[in-house]
Amino acid sequence: MKEEMKDIFTAFKVRTLIWDCFSLKLIDQRKLPFEETYIDCRTPEDVFSAIKNMVVRGAPAIGVAAAYGAALAAIQCKNISGLGEFIDFMSSKIELLASSRPTAVNLSWALERINRIIDSQVERPVAEDDHQEKIRAIIGLIIKEAENIEEEDIRINIDLGENIFRITGKSRKKFNILTHCNAGALATAGYGTALGVIRSLNRAGMVKNVIVDETRPYLQGARLTAWELYREKIPFFIITDNMAGYFMSKGDVDMVVTGADRIAANGDAANKIGTLPLSVLAKNYNIPFYIAAPLSTIDINTPDGKLIPIEQRPEEEVRSILGRIVIPPYMPVSNPSFDVTPNQDISAIITEKGVIYPPFGENIRSFF
Question: Which domains does the chain have, with CATH numbers?
Fold first, then answer.
């Protein structure tokens, strides 16, 4: 990691994941903010379970975790002598990891990078008695690629955060910023996307207050975003999701900044459920609505938001709050985890390479 990255990265104290070349340690986000514990993942099945069960969440963090899950699978192959057996084993584990959550495109993006490493090496001819040596070489390359994905994510998030100044400039103005869900260090390898924007503004002395939606049903805002802001002494207060319109109507919101789990080629953006109504409210009150996401979150193969798969989470997440049942089992519930904000409600998409403005269909293509 470059020195300037280290200076920024060490300024905050949230570590989503820790890789030690033998295991992947993930902070258990289900227990925050009351308990800070790490889960030790030593197999790809452990990582699959951690992603599926929301130990780790947030599109970039899921992608990095999945890459390390593939690295753990590769480590299990050290005693495999046949190249075909190695390829079959890795394919099955990568397929398992890819099935953990459907909406976040970073998951498939990271695993595709691992697959490309394997394919590029397998295509090279090798003698039968050199298969084991080749397997060891591929294992090393897979581990290195996972480490690269983590480091790149941190650099990307820092660059993305700094690009907010292309919109605001640097001035004495202090902003009231509303955000939804958690798009901070906990949702990435470090620094964050939407919260990375807020971190950059705060370092420039340009944050008056962060208004944090609690983000039902999983409370990622109240439990996770607020926890990160508190630890870094960034001013904030928490509201219930249905209070956002009240604060917008009073003129207490200068901008809305959220992350995204997948952005379609036309700029439609899937994010945590509850983002869509915020965009409608912001448009009504002439408040800028920004999506902060790396280019890897843009799925240029998906034409529009109608084709983005929406994950349906377990009913229990709606029926209870922090383990306490509030809706009896005889009452039906539904729990879509994401909604899609239409491109016409988005003021700009902030990426690590710059700011994308409407018309998104045309301008997104220029970034690829």
Answer: 3-160 (1.20.120.420), 162-365 (3.40.50.10470)
